[in-house]
């Protein structure tokens, strides 16, 4: 029995947490029993709520003037896509994102996101308008106004604030659900989720866009896999892929685990369930507007080097234009080779790697060469990182790079990093490279844990726990 019950306590095994605990009484003792009501999961949920609330406060200055100050959103680092997409993509007129109505399409751009985010953005627009007006407003007069003028009208400004509030409350619930799944993935290690709950990356980026909708499905998929539920795992991966593309990469990790443990049937079940869930989620959008549904795919293929990418650094540093086609080919070749490397690593490892480790490595490889790295993309890695390497030192090193990049990208957009004599903002390149270096540091640590399982903090707890009924215990999670 571990101190404090059957749970592995971080003050007993994590040097950083142990050192910090000295200020509040020291590590958990051999007779420590904890609190009956304040269980680890409840503490994790409370910290998540506080962290998310701090993130809402951080956006307060932009909220007060409804994101109308073009420089404040960068100087205070409180930018969010939500208010601008509310008017820019037709949510202000409750337009179905995949409508083929010519008047709507002449007025508004098509949502460039997968269907899961589009559905959520559209649904919360209805809720926001109903909450603001105590009923749905008549849009006849609004439809006659130029789109460019809508953002500044008092009625729409009020709706935008309600839209942000409704989304913040919804995403707060999603963040709490994510924390619950992470805390429950490894039965004896609920405290691992604290690195997510107290993450500065979560506080700073949760309200930039709707990426948390995919994050919760990824966390749920890792939980379902740890409970030996391949069909549910596949459904969650499919729904996640319908919300953001990257959850699809979890199937690669599932494949490696199943090849190692001779569970090919489980992989086929998961893959079939993922495909069925993805089709079911996309079908309403495709049937109502196939051309609009394709915009997400064409938008990403035609996109050139953008914020945060290594391609932008190369392009600006060498003063050379790199075509979207060249970036597409090079990045997919690199990512394909990276995935092959993860496959070989997983198959040659001394013990079956955990799903979180494999999924983290695959998603990290994708982000390293992606054409854009928006600040909120750190959320893609966050739940996988805290499960793959639950050590505070390594989490702090990685997230330090992410926080530096978060500040740098807004100052870059606000032109605060531009040299006085003109030219490119070299510090922004440094911030991108440092972020990538911190990410590669964590990749290296996870690879070492796979090759030398004795370094994996989770391995001992997973082996000691009762094994699932159908899968070897080391493969869980």
Features:
transmembrane helix, transferase, disordered C terminus, GT87, single chain, transmembrane, 477 residues, disordered N terminus, cell membrane, mainly alpha
- Whole-number mean pLDDT: 91
Approximate helicity band? 55-70%
What is the N-to-C order of secondary-structure elements (H for helix, E for strand)? HHHHHHHHHHHHHHHHHHHHHHHHH
Strand content: under 5%
Return the domain count: 1
Question: How would you describe this structure to a colleague?
Answer:
- It is found in: Cell membrane.
- Pfam families: GT87.
- This protein is mainly α and 477 residues long.
- The protein has one domain.
- It is 64% helix and 0% strand.
- It contains 25 helices and no strands.
- The chain has helices spanning 10-13, 15-21, 40-58, 60-64, 72-75, 82-88, 102-107, 115-133, 147-150, 154-185, 194-197, 200-205, 212-226, 230-241, 250-260, 264-288, 290-293, 295-302, 310-318, 324-348, 355-368, 378-388, 392-413, 426-451, 457-464.
């Amino acid at each position: 029995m571990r101190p404090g019950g059957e749970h592995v306590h971080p003050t007993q095994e994590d040097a950083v947490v142990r050192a910090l605990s000295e200020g509040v009484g020291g590590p958990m003792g051999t007779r420590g029993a904890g609190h009956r009501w304040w269980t680890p999961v409840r503490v994790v949920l409370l910290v998540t709520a506080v962290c998310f609330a701090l993130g809402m406060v951080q956006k307060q200055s932009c909220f007060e003037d409804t994101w109308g100050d073009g420089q404040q959103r960068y100087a205070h680092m409180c930018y969010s896509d939500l208010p601008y997409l509310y008017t820019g993509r037709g949510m202000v007129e409750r337009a179905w994102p995949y409508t083929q109505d010519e008047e709507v399409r002449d007025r508004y751009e098509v949502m460039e996101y997968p269907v899961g985010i589009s559905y959520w953005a559209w649904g919360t627009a209805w809720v926001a308008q109903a909450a603001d007006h105590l009923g749905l407003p008549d849009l006849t007069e609004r439809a006659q106004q130029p789109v460019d003028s809508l953002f500044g009208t008092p009625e729409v400004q009020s709706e935008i604030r309600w839209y942000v509030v409704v989304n913040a409350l919804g995403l707060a619930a999603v963040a709490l659900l994510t924390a619950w799944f992470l805390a429950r993935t490894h039965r004896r290690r609920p405290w691992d989720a604290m690195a997510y709950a107290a993450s500065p990356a979560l506080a700073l980026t949760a309200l930039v866009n709707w990426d948390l909708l995919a994050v919760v499905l990824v966390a749920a998929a890792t939980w379902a896999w740890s409970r030996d539920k391949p069909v549910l795992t596949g459904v969650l991966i499919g729904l996640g892929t319908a919300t953001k593309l990257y959850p699809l990469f979890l199937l690669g990790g599932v494949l490696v685990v199943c090849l190692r443990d001779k569970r090919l049937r489980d992989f086929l079940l998961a893959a079939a369930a993922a495909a069925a869930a993805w089709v079911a989620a996309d079908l309403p959008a495709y049937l109502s507007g196939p051309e609009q549904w394709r915009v997400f795919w064409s938008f990403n293929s035609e996109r050139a080097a953008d914020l945060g990418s290594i391609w932008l650094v190369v392009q600006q540093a060498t003063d050379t234009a790199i075509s979207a086609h060249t970036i597409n080919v090079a990045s997919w070749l690199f990512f394909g080779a990276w995935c092959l490397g993860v496959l070989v690593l997983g198959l040659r490892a001394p013990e079956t790697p955990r799903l979180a480790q494999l999924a983290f490595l695959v998603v990290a490889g994708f982000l390293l060469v992606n054409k854009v790295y928006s600040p909120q993309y750190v959320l893609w890695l966050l739940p996988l990182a805290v499960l793959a390497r639950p050590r505070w030192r390594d989490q702090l090193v990685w997230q330090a790079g992410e926080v530096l990049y978060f500040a740098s990208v807004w100052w870059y957009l606000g032109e605060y990093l531009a040299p006085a004599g003109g030219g490119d903002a070299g510090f922004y390149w440094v911030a991108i490279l440092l972020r990538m270096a911190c990410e590669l540091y964590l990749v290296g640590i996870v690879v070492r844990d796979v090759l030398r399982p004795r370094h994996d903090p989770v391995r001992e707890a997973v082996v000691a726990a009762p094994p699932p009924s159908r899968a070897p215990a080391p493969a869980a999670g």
